[in-house]
Amino acid sequence: MGFFKFSGTGSWNSPYVGDVSGPASAVQTEDGKITLSIDFQSVETAAHLAMNVINLPMREDSQLLIRNKKGHSLQTSSFQLLTMNVPFADERKNNCTMTGWAPSVDVSYFGKPTAAKTAVYMLTNLAFFGDTPRDRRIGKDRYESIATLFFEVAGYNFELIPVQKHHEACVDAVRTRSTRHTADLRVSVSEGSIETQIKVLDDLVGEICTLLSLGMGNRVSWIARNILGDRDRLIHTARRHGVTSPFVPLPVIGGYAGYSIAPSDLRALIYAGLPRLRHWNARLATSVGEHPLTDATRLATDARQETVFLQARTLAAITSLEILASRLASIDKQEYIIARPKFKQVRQHLRTTFESLPEGALGSSQISDMMLKIPELNRRSALSTLGNLVRAAGLNPDVEGIRTYLRIRNSLVHTGDYKPNIAIRVQEQHWFIIHFVDRVLLGLLNYKGNYLPANTRSNQAPFPA
């Protein structure tokens, strides 16, 4: 079923055969996925495209434009060809269909961009309670009472609004293990360049979604942005091929009346978390990963999904802290016990010692294998680097807890399974890891409020405790 659909006459400029045109459509489903198609009347053109299809997806300038009878237009950021239906078997039917996707599509309606008043972002998989009651019109002379939630960040006033039948949408998403559009995030835009503001707002809403994802234990993503003018007239919509995930009822700070986030906890997460998210992303950034805390949060969130083996989910959660601990150790120059130039002398001394052993004690290949492991002697222990991360999160390092975490981690990394013969039952070791990771991430974000301990999965508790 199409969550959004746009159809009309399409045109696509191929780098190989020139213009391709014909009936075209764009469909976005509620999980954010965008599918595009265009029909055209040339088997010869299709054959030429099919032979070069491997080169097409990499062309960022390959755009599909669709216009409908109302004068509205849709344009893709880049059209990436997926499949081609070419009827070679029946020469009487020369109608060809080309299907692809795009990272995003933009649709322009009536009105000028300078008349923009409001931006509305469609969010997935967010269950929450508002604290500001108001009536919403749902038809002619029909209204419903809802509760929205206001907050202000970065100079913008946001209103979080539940969709119609919000609770039912969340319950259905949980039941079907699917993604649902459950909330809208509305924000007023100021006068001036709407293009500049939208870039800022897109980034800001992305950061808010990262925080909400951690709170919900699900990927909360924005999959569409509507620009409204006077009297909420639709001017422009952008549809994003978003990275979403199924709704799993395993919240981190939810649990209030089911799995919804209470207003005070949601605000506490956003107000405290946004500056800290930016701080840690900037401090730990490298040329390889510019947003390490965001990446770690997504990994930890994905670890709660029920779509892969439990061991793989536990490793995803562990990896989230490995990213942060290693980055922090590198930046604080705590990776090595002694300076690397000085340790080279130690390595040379060890080689000399090995080679001076009685004949037959060690062979040359054995010495070479040992020397490959020697550099690890100079790396600080995982107990040390993880302890530093826990302290950076403002938590008191529980040495025995960290040791248990590392026993489970080492067993999974080296054997692919959980650690036997420890106090925690095998089936509960996953939740021990998840609880440990949750606390570190909430601490890094300076969150103070209620949370749901993953190791007990029962009642809410204050954080930090």
Structure description:
It is a single chain. With 465 residues, the chain is an alpha+beta fold. Helices cover 37% and strands 25% of the residues. It is built from 11 helices and 17 strands. The protein is globular. The mean pLDDT is 86. The longest helix has 23 residues.
Offer a concise description of the structure:
The chain is an alpha+beta fold and 465 residues long. The protein contains eleven helices and 17 strands.
Q: What percentage of the residues does DSSP assign to strands (E)? A: 15-25%
Helix-residue proportion: 25-40%
Shape: globular
The radius of gyration computed from the alpha-carbon positions, rounded to a whole number of angstroms, is 27 Å
Separation, N- and C-terminal Cα atoms: 46 Å
Keywords:
465 residues, alpha+beta, two-stranded antiparallel sheet, 11 helices, globular
Topology:
Blueprint: E1 4-14, E2 18-28, E3 34-40, H1 43-51, E4 64-67, E5 73-76, E6 80-85, E7 96-101, E8 104-108, E9 118-124, E10 132-139, E11 142-153, E12 156-162, H2 166-176, E13 181-188, H3 194-216, E14 222-228, E15 234-240, H4 263-284, H5 292-302, H6 310-331, H7 340-355, H8 364-373, H9 382-392, H10 399-415, H11 426-444, E16 449-451, E17 461-463
Antiparallel strand pairs: 1-2, 1-4, 2-3, 3-7, 4-5, 5-8, 6-7, 8-15, 9-13, 9-14, 10-11, 11-12, 12-13, 14-15, 16-17
Helix pairs in contact: 3-4, 3-5, 5-6, 6-9, 6-11, 9-10
